[in-house]
Write a structure and sequence with these properties.
Elements lengths: L1 E9 L2 E10 L2 E7 L7 E2 L4 E4 L1 E6 L1 E2 L2 E2 L5 H11 L4 E6 L6 H17 L5 E2 L2 E4 L21 H10 L4 E6 L8 H7 L4 E4 L6 H9 L4 E2 L15 H8 L4 E5 L7 H11 L4 E4 L12 E4 L2 E5 L5 E3 L5 E3 L4 H10 L5 H8 L1 H6 L17 E4 L5 E6 L2 E4 L1
Helix pairs in contact: 5-6
Amino acid sequence: MIIQSKKVWVSGVFIEAQIELKEGKINHVYPYGCHVVDHDYGTDWIIPGMIDVHCHGGLGFDTNDANREGLVKWAKGLLKEGITSFCPTTVTQSVEVLVPALENIANAVSEGYEGAEIIGIHFEGPYLNTKNKGAQPEEFIVKPNVEQLKMYQEKANGLIKIITVACEEDENFELTRYASQHGINVSIGHSASTYDEACLAVANGATGMTHVYNGMNGLHHREPSLVGAAMNLKDTYSEIICDGNHVVWPAIHALVMSKGRDNCIMIDDALCAKGCAPGSYELGGNAIEIRENGSAYLAGTNTLAGGTLLFNKGLQNLIEKALVPIDYAINMVTLNPARYLNVDHRKGRIASGFDGDLVVLDKNFDVVDVYAHGQCVRN
């Protein structure tokens, strides 16, 4: 199959080109117009398939539900917004809830399914700080425990690739050091850490910060805290929610411009209500409500509990509302998460030999078509 556009995203710029897809891969990138094509997209953008490293659920399903049918339905639904790879994300809960959730994901991956590719699990909690728990249920927050994490990783068949930890709760950074040395990205989040504690956590293996600004102490000129560490520690990765409710546009702009084009990652922190009507739902055993602005809140409070924004519209927000340069914004949904998850040898770029994961966007950032492993999966 050969497709073409006058705006194909290659190494930070748009070029006129044809893309040949063969056996699930990008086989060849040709000059525009040199072969008969199966589809000409005109001036629509063709960018790499988008990657979401932090999403709890959608279409009525939550990762903690441990329901294969719901997981597969959700994975298929993600393709409609241009997500071709993702990390199902847990919510702090009991061992009795988290183990089946991990096993459900591991079984789906080993048995095969149709939909966006699961390239890891984001284990958010239960090793958090109750001071900045957000919507995480406090009764199930526990101290970091290496032996328990080993058990969880065994149940996940090695799929845990990111774990959110409050580093100041991790005595001697034992879990941070273990996880980072065994292929798991440690992301500091739901934390009350100081700037100095965050720096030490990074020195002991932490590589990122979870939904920066949310679930952490704010930036202050005499105590920059975790927000300041995210901005100042350039080689770490920073997640950022781009719906305009969790973080206002100037603050998004400030974070992204401080980090540069290679170390920010856009997330939606989506929950089961994504794709559903406003109303009452549940997250980690807590009652939540989706309001007209599209965000979730703990029922009866103004505590944010996640979002429902479509990923393609988050990219639009970055460019048109947060005024982030286009190359920064596209990297945030493609190459940067691929690097973070150590899959940038096959995902995140349009180049020969990479997975045939592509998204076609029109001028309104609506998804025209999606290609997953070389197959068109949405027309």
